[in-house]
Amino acid sequence: MSVSRHSVNTYKAEIGFAASRQPPSLLPEARTLITGDDQLITMLSCTRYLIWGGLLALAGLTAASPVATGPLPIAIRHTPSFPSSLEHRDYNTSSLSPVVSLPPTIQSDLTTLLSPSALVLLPSSPSFTQYTHRWSLNTHTNSPSYGVIVIPASERDVSLTIQYANTHSIPFLATTGTHGTWQGLSQLQGGMAIWTRNLTKMEFAADGHSATLGGGLRGNDVIPALWARGKQTTTGSCRCVSLLGPALGGGHGWLQGQYGLGADQILSARVVLANGTAVKTSNTENSDLFWALRGAGHNFGVVTEVEYKLYDAVRPEWSYQSFTFTQDRLEEVYRVHNAVMRNQSQYVVYWSLWRLVPEVDPVNPILVSTVYYNGPASEAASYFAPFAALSPLQTTPVQTTDYPGLAAAAQFRVTDWACQPKAGATVYGMDVDSYDVKGLRKSYNAFRDMIRAEPALSLSMAYLEGYSLQAVQAVPYESTAFALRDRKLLYGFLVTYEETERNKTLDAQAQNWGEKIRDAAYGDKVKQKSVYVNYAKGSESLQAMYGYEGWRQERLKMLKRKYDPKGRFSFYAPIKA
Ligand SMILES: Cc1cc2nc3c(=O)[nH]c(=O)nc-3n(C[C@H](O)[C@H](O)[C@H](O)COP(=O)(O)OP(=O)(O)OC[C@H]3O[C@@H](n4cnc5c(N)ncnc54)[C@H](O)[C@@H]3O)c2cc1C
């Protein structure tokens, strides 16, 4: 059984990216900023390497995956071109809030103020658009636009930038992985981006139990670097999201059952507050703020670095298998999911998704359940068996990989479809304790009806994520602002389209369908709806995101008044003081 280590070069080879393919237009200032080969690949590939095959592979339906059961008429060689309009996005902000008026001298002011390695870009700067990439490109729904982009090289630069922004009443937003889809992000039109991606510190503690990690790092930076040292920790499962965007809201990932959430790994954090002051937070310093950062963190500052827990990678091997079902099996499939989740091992993750594969069924999306087990295939067999016993339409062979390789297994590498930018994309999230099978059937029917009614939405997917909870629940419930430690399932209904011409019409339709699909999935029994803040979009209540207990709401409001009384950090799931 082979366990492969993925390196940047491996990734390059996998996507056929050669150095000679770097476009000549990459500007010198951009070159100096891009610190890793993989970052370069992401930025360049964002608009050019949409891999439709990746979507298929997510369900284990690649041509390379032999069909273990049942012949299927699947021809899987699609490579649709990515709309060229996405390469050079045109911010049409006329229907949004007024564009911010910036001091005419802002570029020279900030350049003088900040360290020599910092950059200040205006829309007229040749490389400006290289820093405006977002995962969802639609300004009408959830994408901000900027009149100035500041790229700090140090915490001091962040402090000075925020002080300058405050003096000149310029609204600002920290931006790292660019995957946030909260609708309030589009309220920032013509303001300031604080592009954190050059805060890339990675310093390992001598005892090997922690590292200081910069606020600009992504999972894709952290996972391979740790693995090279025989270490791992909880990060988002998707490589393209930042380390801290997820962790400040909780942070779900493959290893949470063993180590806890991303937020639970933070031993201390350095934060630049709304007034530009930089402070350290931990259980002993500014502990009230430290509490709030771990669950409601986007509300309280720009985190420049964190001291983050690390673990020896003592179980390097992962085994996984996918099972494909037609929609008529939905009730049986999710009853099995409910049954296996009752005693879910800390080493197992149960994922399921819905998507349309026209070659299998042109109108009814298929269901794909994948079981990931942190251990050898011989041990994993008993976790795969309940799904195999359902006689799926298709079963992939059991495969193994290592922890970094999980991203390829799930098609969550930065070059895969899931990570690629979309013309419009919104996640409709929810957290529940178990599958409400009746509700899920209604939800599925709405999902199917959406695709039938509007083929432009047919790339939409449902991600039903069943991470294990042992280490998440071992953390005292009151000890952080993350309030959903008891929820076993995280649903993300991703409603997406690639057309740009009709984006306003499609947005309206996507929104109607997205809400309908999500509402149905709750079923009849859920009295208090809960939503992981990082999968929320803006129509959810503060209680749904931050907890229904009065004390939680009061504490968050009090801390918002204390640390951000003017609501500077209010473009993402804002707490109203
Ligand atoms: C394809 C995809 C995969 C995902 N996978 C996962 C996953 O595996 N696990 C998971 O838990 N979530 C996941 N998410 C949800 C993810 O947690 C949120 O989208 C999160 O907001 C992304 O953070 P970002 O930095 O990538 O995005 P951004 O849009 O750059 O940031 C989102 C918010 O975080 C704030 N922020 C970012 N960096 C900092 C910082 N250093 N200091 C303070 N504030 C900061 C921003 O200001 C903004 O308000 C996924 C989302 C998508 C679209």
UniProtKB/TrEMBL annotation:
<dbReference type="InterPro" id="IPR050416">
    <property type="entry name" value="FAD-linked_Oxidoreductase"/>
</dbReference>
<feature type="domain" description="FAD-binding PCMH-type">
    <location>
        <begin position="141"/>
        <end position="313"/>
    </location>
</feature>
<dbReference type="GO" id="GO:0016491">
    <property type="term" value="F:oxidoreductase activity"/>
</dbReference>
<keyword id="KW-1133">Transmembrane helix</keyword>
<dbReference type="InterPro" id="IPR006094">
    <property type="entry name" value="Oxid_FAD_bind_N"/>
</dbReference>
<comment type="similarity">
    <text>Belongs to the oxygen-dependent FAD-linked oxidoreductase family.</text>
</comment>
<keyword id="KW-0812">Transmembrane</keyword>
<keyword id="KW-0285">Flavoprotein</keyword>
<protein>
    <submittedName>
        <fullName>FAD-binding domain-containing protein</fullName>
    </submittedName>
</protein>
<dbReference type="GO" id="GO:0071949">
    <property type="term" value="F:FAD binding"/>
</dbReference>
<dbReference type="InterPro" id="IPR016169">
    <property type="entry name" value="FAD-bd_PCMH_sub2"/>
</dbReference>
<feature type="transmembrane region" description="Helical">
    <location>
        <begin position="49"/>
        <end position="68"/>
    </location>
</feature>
<dbReference type="InterPro" id="IPR016167">
    <property type="entry name" value="FAD-bd_PCMH_sub1"/>
</dbReference>
<dbReference type="Pfam" id="PF01565">
    <property type="entry name" value="FAD_binding_4"/>
</dbReference>
<dbReference type="InterPro" id="IPR036318">
    <property type="entry name" value="FAD-bd_PCMH-like_sf"/>
</dbReference>
<dbReference type="InterPro" id="IPR016166">
    <property type="entry name" value="FAD-bd_PCMH"/>
</dbReference>
<keyword id="KW-0560">Oxidoreductase</keyword>
<keyword id="KW-0274">FAD</keyword>
<keyword id="KW-0472">Membrane</keyword>
